[in-house]
Design a protein that fits this description.
heterodimer; A: about 100 residues; alpha+beta; Copper Amine Oxidase, Chain A, domain 1; five-stranded antiparallel β-sheet; 2 helices; about 30% helix; globular; B: about 325 residues; alpha/beta; Rossmann fold; Hypothetical Protein Yjia, Chain: A,domain 2; seven-stranded parallel β-sheet; seven-stranded antiparallel β-sheet; about 25% strand
């Protein structure tokens, strides 16, 4: 399992705990992460290098692209947690250097 | 920059008595006071002896409920009158909240409102706790738990009436907010320097008394400290954090758990700025723009972030930070 997939595995496991959902998170032989929860099956796999995305998220057979882990997390939670009201906030980007 | 201090605490916990004492001290003579009472007839105003023109009482309901306009407008007006010379050129503002107020929106206004940005800086939050009834209040009143949780300083009042110090109450306060020192006052009397004068973060000098502000050592072994559903923990990282990682981290934290993030404060070692650490400060969904210190306050260059939350699991926070850091590192390496 790649380092990125390991981190994703840990994050998904912790997320289910945080959202108080009962489910499982497994790593597959081809480097994907499989989340099974509340009759949903979610497969998260690294996107092919020729795509401008980092992850492919397949929720109950429907495929979506995710540009980052932030998007993955949002998609997974929206699928598993019906009470989740997305609140899109923007934090002003950190200046790379003090001004 | 004018420092704004927020004085909060549940109904009858001794805020006004404490404030009246503080304002009698000569060093507080140039202090503007904003008092908010929940009700039609304000009394607290009459209990404060100070120059009339710098005391403004808000009687339009609970300050936290009308905060976006009311407090910001009041502060803006105060500044305007100060600039005109029609009020004492105050150097400090004390905002006494209603006993029923949620302090979070008040802090958010001080941190973000465009009308007052750049002129007023949040200096700290002091929360009074009645030594006689404090335990019962914390058991019954949810808002009092939040008032304690967001404090920089806690003041036990009416200790002269409570008899021996109630260690159970002090333990309770430490459980709710391990990072805030617990002081005590009898009939409102307390050394003001212990309350307000020890400016922990100086935005002009861009210096920080890191130990006083974060008090990471107050959290036993760096582990979670949980009671009720308020949870305090410290995340400490030796490796620098990329600026982009921190931005995404705070954004995701706010998006998923903003309402549950009572307070976050920290000093962060940013990879792109190794000599000048960033100071971060957030209340629920709102984060103050990061401030950059001119140098590290000590030889300890680790990032240290204190989380005071309602049930945001520490494991999730750590996993999120690690995962984002790894992803940003991978993307950076590909470029």
């Amino acid at each position: 399992m790649s380092a990125a997939s390991e981190h994703l595995h840990t994050l998904m496991t912790q997320s289910l705990l945080a959202w108080r959902l009962i489910g499982s998170v497994q790593s597959t032989d081809d480097g994907a992460i499989l989340v099974c929860c509340q009759s949903h099956t979610i497969r998260i796999e690294p996107a092919p290098p020729d795509l401008p995305f980092r992850w492919i998220v397949i929720i109950d057979g429907r495929t979506r692209a995710a540009i980052s882990l932030v998007t993955v997390l949002r998609q997974v939670r929206a699928a598993l947690d019906p009470g989740y009201a997305t609140m899109r906030v923007r934090i002003a980007p950190f200046p790379l250097m003090p001004t | 920059m004018i420092e704004a201090l927020v004085l909060t605490g549940f109904l009858g916990s001794g805020k006004t008595t404490l404030l009246a004492h503080v304002l009698r001290q000569p060093e507080f003579s140039r202090t503007a006071v904003i008092i908010n009472e929940f009700g039609e007839i304000g009394l607290d105003h009459d209990l404060i002896e100070t120059s009339e023109e710098t005391v403004i009482e808000l009687q339009t309901g609970c300050l936290c409920c009308k905060i976006s306009n009311n407090l910001a407008t009041t502060l803006h007006e105060l500044l305007r009158r100060r600039d005109e010379g029609s009020v004492t050129p105050f150097t400090r503002v004390v905002i006494e909240t209603s006993g029923l107020a949620d302090p979070a929106p008040i802090l958010q206004t001080l941190m973000t409102d465009a009308m007052i940005a750049g002129r007023i800086v949040l200096g700290g939050v002091v929360t009074t706790v009645d030594a006689v009834h404090g335990t019962g209040t914390l058991n019954r009143e949810e808002i009092s738990v939040k008032q304690v949780a967001v404090a920089d300083r806690l003041v036990l009042t009416k200790t002269d009436l409570a008899g021996p110090i109630q260690f159970s109450l002090i333990r309770r306060l430490e459980d709710l907010n391990a990072t805030a020192p617990v002081l005590s006052a009898q009939r409102g009397q307390i050394d003001p320097a212990r309350l307000f004068e020890s400016r922990i973060y100086d935005p002009l000098a861009k210096s920080l008394d890191i130990q006083s502000w974060l008090r990471v050592e107050a959290i036993p072994d760096g582990h979670s400290h949980q009671r009720h559903d308020v949870d305090t923990y410290a995340i400490v990282r030796r490796d620098p954090i990329r600026a982009v990682t921190l931005t995404l981290f705070l954004e995701t934290l706010s998006e998923h758990y903003g309402a549950y993030l009572l307070r976050l404060k920290g000093i962060v070692n940013i990879l792109e700025s190794p000599d000048r650490p960033a100071v971060i400060h957030g209340v629920q969904h709102v984060f103050h723009p990061p401030s950059w210190l001119t140098r590290w306050p000590s030889d300890d260059h680790r990032s240290r972030m204190i989380f005071i939350t309602r049930g945001i699991p520490r494991g999730w926070v750590e996993a999120l930070l690690e995962a984002l850091d790894a992803e940003i590192a991978a993307v950076s390496a590909q470029r």
